Amino acid sequence: MRVVLPGIGHWRHDLTHCLHTTMGVLLGFYGLDPLHALGAGWGFAYPAGDVRREEYYFPTVDRSLLGSLAPHHPLSSSWHEPAGAEQGWHDVREAVSGGVPVAVAVDNFHLPFRPAYSDVHTNHLLAVYGFDDDRHEAYVADPVPPRFQGPIPLAALAAARDSANPIRHDRDLFFTANPLANRWLTIHLDGPQPALDLDFVRAAMLRNVAGLADGTAAGAVLRGLAGQRAFLESALADLDAGEHRVDEVFVVAGAILAVTGLHADFLGAAARRLDRPALAELGREVDRVAHHWTALRIGVANARSRPGAEVPALQARAAALIADQERVVARMADTARRL
Amino acid sequence: MTTVDIRSTVATPVALTALFNNTGIAASRWPTTGAFNIWANTFPSEDLPAAGSTVDVGGVPFLFPGAPTGAPDNVRCRGQEVPVPVGSYDWVYALAAAERRSEDLVLVRYADGSGRRQWLRVSDFWPETPARFGERTAFHCGRMLYPRHSQPGMAPAIWRCRVPIAVPGRVRGLVLPDNPAIHVFALTAVRP
Predict the structure, then answer these.
(1) Which residues constitute the domain of residue B123?
(2) What's the domain count of chain B?
(3) How do the residues of chain B divide into helix, strand and coil, expressed in percent and rounded to 5?
(4) What was the ipTM of the complex prediction?
(5) Residue in A119, A304, A317 closest to B146 by CB
(6) What is the pLDDT of residues B35-81, one digit of tens each?
(7) Pick from B130, B146, B181: which is nearest to A298 by CB?
(8) What top-level class would CATH report for the domain A2-189?
């Protein structure tokens, strides 16, 4: 039997990683605009210490993974945890046979088209949209450079999905030591995509602002600007004290960088669609916050060898990030009301 | 309407060698000698101008890093002060690349002791990623180097960026931002 689902395309935003690109591929399959869905939200909610060593980590609170990525859309997702590799492929094959492309967790070490092939272990995410039983192949879509879409040996995909994801050398960083366990994910559309109109944009902006302003700096879940400030301040203080939180900050910063960069471009797209230059200006301000996250994320990555020495620069960057974000959030509320 | 050609400029390459603190370029036969990023990726020297050569990028001459293999060849921005031959410039051009795109403020120092901050915006070096800030592509390599292999089809980029000297005056130096995501390979100050 051979099934290759039509309508699978490429989607990528340069500040995101495999989580958003894979979700973009799946949303695109159903005819949704990924930037509209994934870029409308802007917030911070982090269950303290929740981070996992996977490229597609995203903090989820109260919602599914896709629900957290697209809080203003009727979307959700479900993780599936099969008993083993055989059931893992059986279940994915069944879903694809039924016309449903899925996301699967993979270790890049086993995938011939990834630069990390036979080199670096990395817990990654991509889409599966077909298979050919006779040729023992699976069809995968992965927009992360080098972008790839097409068939690969089923044995390679099976090895990647069943990998223990070990740490073998000093470049097995951040996304290792987290066995893949054949996990896979389906997305659910619980309604049509909302129109990108003034009402939607205004409502999304006001909800985002409310979520950021109504923060929680203590407890099990850090929320909003207050929670983000508390996360950064405590993590950097711990780094200064010699605790190893480099990986946690790097991974969480990557998720928040993606959200921020997407929201900047969402505002830019809305500005063009709705002829509202104020949204474009706001988008540029959000982009500036994203670029702070770039600096902070790379700064903390380079702090692995001497974290204490890097703390003053990281604290200065975190303070500038928060100050700029507070300014743009204040402006956002005003802009939304004037739309 | 009469138009006047004012493209005649004087370009002054700025010495950066003493500030180099990162090795981002390596020979393909010996790819373990650099680490542009934490995964030790490097640009292949065979796809770039000869070390120490003067290279024209869109009409601006740059002194390409002249480091021997394995030696530092770019400035990872950590707030370094870059002396510039004192002069009245319109722009400072840079050959630069970032680990994910970023923007930050450069402090332009004037001979009279004053200073003005100006934006430096640098796009991602990562393959298949277009310029975000309208920069000219200076170099697109044909592959990227990893410590254990060379990856064809992964084409990292170095961009030609520019920082305006918006306030006229005699410039004596630049203070780079403390932003480790931004790497600068060469600088050239330009005046009419």
Answers:
(1) 10-191
(2) 1
(3) 5, 50, 45
(4) 0.94
(5) A119
(6) 999 889 999 999 999 999 999 999 999 999 987 878 999 999 999 99
(7) B181
(8) alpha beta
